[in-house]
Amino acid sequence: MITEWGETLDPECVLPEYPRPQLVRDSYVNLNGRWDYSITSAAITARPGKWDGEIVVPFSPEAPLSGVNRILQPDESLWYRRTVTLPEGFVRDRVLLHFGAVDQDCEVWIDDTLVGGHRGGYLPFTLDITDALRGESHQLVVRVRDVTDTSWRSRGKQQLDRGGIWYTPQSGIWQTVWLESVPQCWVDRLDLVPHPESGEVEVCVTAGGTGEETAEVTVRADDHDVVSGTVTVGVPTRLRLGDDVRLWSPEDPFLYDVEVRLGADRVCSYVGMRSCGIGPDETGTTRLLLNGKPYLHAGLLDQGYWPDGLYTAPSDDALIHDIVTAKDLGFTMLRKHIKIEPLRWYHHCDRLGILVWQDMVNGGRSYRQAVVTAPVALPVKLDDSRYTWFGRQDAEGRTEFLEELDATVALLRSTPSVAAWVPFNEAWGQFDAVAATARIKELDATRPIDHASGWHDQGGGDMASRHVYFRPYRLSRADAKDERVAVLSEYGGYSYRVPGNVWSDKEFGYRKFSDQWTYERAFLRLQHTQLGPAIDEGLAAFVYTQLADVEEETNGLMTYDRRVLKVDADAVRASNLRLRGRHDHAAGGVESPLAVREREITEPVPLTRPDGRLNPGAVGWTRTPLITTDGIGSGRAGKGRNKRWEYWAVTTPTHVVTLVVSDIDYAAVHGIWMLDRESGETIAYDAIGLPRSATLPSTLGGGPVRARTKKVRIDIDEIDGGTRLRARGERLEIDVLAHRPEGHECLGVVVPWTDRLFQYTVKDVARPATGTISVDGVVADVLEGESWATLDHGRGRWPYAVHWNWGAGSGRTDGKVIGIQVGGKWTDGAGSVENALVVDGHLSKISEELVWTYDPGDWMAPWRITGDTVDLTFTPFHLKKSVTDLLVFSSRTHQCFGHWSGTVADDTGTWLRVEEVVGWAEDVHNRW
User: Fold this and answer.
1) Alpha-helical regions (H) of 431-515
2) Are 712 and 729 a contacting pair, CB within 8 Å?
3) How many C-beta atoms surround the C-beta of residue 478 within 10 A?
4) Which among 85, 117, 189, 658 counts the fewest CB atoms within 10 Å?
5) Which helix H or strand E contains 900, and what residues bound it?
6) How deeply is 450 buried, as exposed, middle or buried, from its count of CB atoms within 10 A (0-12, 13-18, 19+)?
7) How far is CA 62 from CA 47, 71, 177, in A?
8) pLDDT at 287 over 90
9) Rounded Cα–Cα distance for residues 356 and 300 (Å)
């Protein structure tokens, strides 16, 4: 398997970009490309007399792009060799040789001189090779050992016996090798710590060599100097940028340029002015803060593996692609999992704008399944000072891990995008997590810490961090009350194998799907039904597993080769925007509408597939009833709890009448209700009977609608020019014609929760009505031109419990016939909404989730329904309250009748006035 970047790789020009973007110097020789290599027994310390061939650096020999395709064994050494010729005029006073990372231990020679070495496979190191340089050309030789997972050494997710969540091991040089030349005294390190609350940046210049005690620092914005100052080498010094500091955020990733001059040396860098932390929102709930305000960390687990390069991305554009994809999907954070990336990856996160949670690289001896895996299903919490249980019985290993922890924080401390540290994950080599947290805080007090991601929480750090894969997630009471911030640091892991884009015949994932549409719907429903309520209750961050497939793991949103995005980007972006809106509202902000992208259907299409599952081709909206629903209840997936109903409402100057005929598979529910608007008197006939008491056509208009019980008799028939509605109860008789004017349009919508849970609804408003309503023999005319009928037609299979809002109204304003149709809650997160405006029979679709604002403690107070194209107030004049509780079946309805007023924009963008249009708005909780 190969990526598009791997296909176009030029071995003579591999990763040529400058590798250290936060400390740029005008001196650079890239040493990537073709080197000689040899693999020998580890017992042999002499250089090879014969070399095995060429390897493309910096790809590990295990990576296809290296040209070697060979796994280095723990008892072997990997040798590298290449000739280096320094360019004319390159050498100043000192020459430095840089390695981005070499896995795992190495020694380095220039010609016959050993110039140094390094332990550990994930951090950069630099060797001063000046004194070894004699002549113009030199032989650079590197010897590497890598014991992978046969020791306590840090190795991430590499495993010699790969499979499942453990990946192909890799070894040797895997990041850029390069040379630079510096003066006798140079800037060796530059720490930049933003303090946006005071408008200052803290600068600390660390010098290499000798001869200079002060440095000149200039901070610029858009090529204009903001502040300049002299700082003492080695002393943290604050420079004030002023009161009008431009803050860094994922939405505005603004970076200030920084220039440092130390004697003859000059380097360029940048800083992002932002703060990260935790604190209470306006309701007192602990949240993650960005620049002092609650901010949802909507994240993806990012392993940083590539099918052709393993740890090494095939190009800089490949790194950018992953970050841009995550942002385009609406995520605000990447959790860099058990790996430290090349510095260019962090640079792209800084400039493109995405937060990073940085994991430390795990080590330790072989992990015990009872310790690292059992907690996924059992509430196990162990004391991590029991080192042997966690594979940390080696004191040398614990010491080396802490040294690498220190170096990781030092390396990335000035990186604006890094927003949190994660020292331990799922007990992999965990030990003394509370002490490790204190150690990190000493090094960097500016970022929160997830001290034990997943399980074996030691009560430390800033986050109550959970991993949930095999059960529905709910924010626990304990986590909601915890003084730390509640985060779901891993979940999901849904698998879908894209034919032709898989690395292996094996499949690993926590829930498996066979087709793209079902997989996508499941992901979106997971986000809405599990994360949404948790965010309302205080969840501050989530990390979905994962960004891209890795080897046998096919649970990425992208394939391993990055050629296929498995989800619709617009749908996932809308889902994340919805979750961010819920977070901001729960934190005390204003609730906002959300635009959705919907498809208009213009040709007839069946609602279901032959097996009874939802037909993806039916998802969308229509102007006329084009969805055929004959397949409801058919097929192996179509049995049980199907819902069919016809609901009609008629409003007149004197009365309101509603009729309902419904079949919910195991029962039929019917009703007639009437309100005398002058006296306030209501008459209601409700009946629950066997399904055979209802006659409903398979598809709208396909036959008569009948309800037959002792209390209720309803007949609904399609006739020339409209629909005839007849109903009779003991005191009440109705005979109304709902006219259908030529060209009249009505809204049809398919709401897809999953492939097995879905609803097709037709909302037909502003149908002129005539006829009679008779109460106790007294006949009232349904006045032509002043009376209106509305249909709510439904076919589908609903979730057992559902909560919805629905509002509709019909009337005249400014000489136009106006029909209002709005809804919410039950459609949230589904990508379909039932909102529309009908003017003189023409329908304008309103594709946004609207904001419903009302007081459940006072249903008769005005309701507000708002959006980018809607600004409506509903003023009730009557409340219809009904409660049914039959254990399995229950319903709690608050339906208010009243007047709609306000403005709505049509599909041309013209705002239309709505004034005193009669209708209703309702809040309903059903269990059925």
Assistant:
1) 433-443, 477-481
2) yes
3) 9
4) 85
5) strand 889-905
6) buried
7) 21, 5, 18
8) yes
9) 10
**Rounded distance, CA 176 to CA 100, Å?**
5
Stretch 60-80: mean pLDDT: 98
- What residue type is 448 in one-letter code? P
Alpha-helix residue ranges (DSSP H) falling in 174-230 = none
Q: In this structure, what token pair is assigned to residue 16?
A: 């040529």
Could you give the CA distance from residue 82 to residue 894 in angstroms, rounded to a whole number?
Answer: 79
Comparing C-alpha atoms, which of 539, 17, 2 is closest to residue 287? 539
The amino acid that residue 302 corresponds to is D
C-beta of residue 636 within 8 angstroms of C-beta of residue 611:
yes
pLDDT tops 80 at residue 139: yes
Q: What is the DSSP string of 382-418?
A: --TT-GGGGT---HHHHHHHHHHHHHHHHHHTT-TTE
The whole-angstrom separation of Cα 735 and Cα 724 is 7
Instruction: Tell whether omega for the bond before 862 is within 30 degrees of 0, i.e. cis.
Output: no
Q: In sequence order, which residues have a C-beta less than 8 Å from that of residue 404 and are 6 or more positions away?
A: 120, 122, 123, 154, 360, 361
Question: pLDDT grade, residue 756 (50/70/90)?
Answer: very high
Q: What is the pTM of this model?
A: 0.94
Number of C-beta neighbours around residue 485 at 10 A: 27
Tokens of 820: 């209002």
In sign, the C-alpha dihedral spanning 87, 90, 95, 97 is negative
Q: What is the length of the chain?
A: 928
Burial of 406 (0-12, 13-18, 19+ CB in 10 A): middle
User: Listing from the earlier edge strand, what are the strands of the sheet with 485-492?
Assistant: 418-422, 355-359, 333-336, 297-302, 541-545, 485-492, 463-468
Q: Which residues contact 926 (CB under 8 A, 6 or more apart)?
A: 798, 801, 802, 803, 804, 890, 891, 892
Residue closest to 645 by CA, chosen among 603, 697, 681, 588: 697
> Per residue in 628-637, is it b (16+ CB within 10 Å) or e — as a string?
bbebbbbeeb
How far is the C-alpha of 192 from the C-alpha of 575, rounded, in Å? 36
Rounded to the nearest integer, the mean pLDDT of the chain is 96
Tokens read off for 8: 């176009």
Place of tokens 């195991």: 666
Burial of 727: CB neighbours in 10 Å, binned 0-12, 13-18, 19+: buried
Sorted by sequence, the CB contacts under 8 Å of residue 858 that are 6+ apart come out as none
**CA atoms of 95 and 689, how far apart (whole Å):** 90
Class of residue 594 by CB neighbours under 10 A (exposed 0-12, middle 13-18, buried 19+)? buried
Cα–Cα separations (whole angstroms), residue 370 to 385, 428, 488, 844? 16, 12, 22, 59
CA distances 587 to 277, 464, 466, 584, Å, are 15, 18, 21, 5
Partners of 367 in the β-ladder:
none
DSSP 553: B
Q: What one-letter code names the amino acid at 402?
A: L
Q: Which helix (H) or strand (E) holds 571?
A: helix 569-586
SS3 assignment, position 525 = helix
d(CA 730, CA 341): 77
Residue type, 538: G
By mean pLDDT, which of 1-10, 374-383, 466-475 is the weakest?
374-383
How far from each other are the two terminal CA atoms of the chain, in whole angstroms?
A: 49
Q: Which of 108, 118, 116, 119 is nearest to 154 (CA)?
A: 119
Other C-beta atoms closer than 10 Å to the C-beta of 711 total 17
How far is residue 748's CA from residue 621's CA, in Å, rounded to a whole number? 5
- As a whole number of angstroms, the distance between CA 712 and CA 706 comes to 10
Q: Average the pLDDT over 208-237 and give the result.
A: 96
